[in-house]
Amino acid sequence: MTAPVLLLDTYSLFFRAYYALPDMSTREGEPTSAVYGFSALLLKLLRENRGAALAFAIDAPQATFRHESFAEYKAGRAPTPMSLSAQFPRLTELIAALGVPAFRVPGFEADDVLATLAARARTEDCAALVVSGDRDLLQLAHGSVRVHFVGRRGKDALVYDEAKVRERFGVPPQKLPSYVAMIGDSSDNLPGVPGIGAATAQKLLATKADCAALLNDAASLKSARTRELLLAHREQILHTEELARLRSDAPLGDGTPWAAPTDSGFGALAELFATLEFKSLTARLEALRAKAVR
After folding, report:
1. Which domains does the chain have, with CATH numbers?
2. SS3 for the chain, per residue?
3. 18-75: per-residue pLDDT in tens?
4. pLDDT of 232-257, one tens digit each?
5. Which residue, 63, 61, 122, is CA-closest to 257?
């Protein structure tokens, strides 16, 4: 059985690793917990998906089209801890060592890069696994693409396909942006409609493709209160839906979108692990490397 392509939401996983582990450092005091946790997850994924190709999606430092459209987008998030910021150069070294595609597109979020890669995988009928701790990515879990959702602080990961998304949210993956437009998303600071909760949103979207279709047919709603709420927040709803919907047109260039690590890549990663004093991970890497070259 061919392994799925692994599409990694780099910063989401890096942040999850940092908050999941206690402080770690080298003998010289360099902090390493986020790099360690990220590396451990990467090795686990490669071990469970032998021979898999992969690609990294990385947020660009510039503001995105969402920030330009909505100044309060993701406002209120806590600043990045210094002990985590100090580890970003090592993350860059790790990705460079593997020598596989890594995409950072100005004006787009890593989520949009992943949506673009996922769309390509579906076009090519290629199985792909998007790996993230960000719920926004669940809208990609359809067709040949699934989402490996990494749990917080040691919780088990869950793999979502379209049926699993429907089971959890009551709507298919493609309607999650419309669902968010109804109930809001505090993590991204996106507003919902006051007075409309998850159950109502599910019912409203059951027979409608998106919020525009729902609003255009608002006159048919039996509940006058719901109708008034929707129409009073029409522009907000459509704007939030647009912000929540991932774009699949990030310009990625004409190169190979994903690739399997080579033996030289594993070798470079082993050198980095030695520098960071990751003895246990070095043993796992060598076991993985031995199987990869057979």
Report:
1. 5-169+251-285 (3.40.50.1010), 173-244 (1.10.150.20)
2. CCCCEEEEEHHHHHHHHHHHCCCCECCCCCECHHHHHHHHHHHHHHHHCCCCCEEEECCCCCCCHHHHHCCCCCCCCCCCCHHHHCCHHHHHHHHHHHCCCEECCCCCCHHHHHHHHHHHHHHCCCCEEEEECCHHHHHHCCCCEEEEECCCCCCCCEEECHHHHHHHHCCCHHHHHHHHHHHCECCCCECCCCCCCHHHHHHHHCCCCCHHHHHHCHHHCCCHHHHHHHHHCHHHHHHHHHHHCCCCCCCCCCCCCCECCCHHHHHHHHHHHHHHCCHHHHHHHHHHHHHHCC
3. 999 999 999 999 999 999 999 999 999 999 999 999 999 999 887 788 878 877 767 7
4. 999 999 999 999 999 999 999 988 99
5. 122
Token digits of residue 281: 């991970």
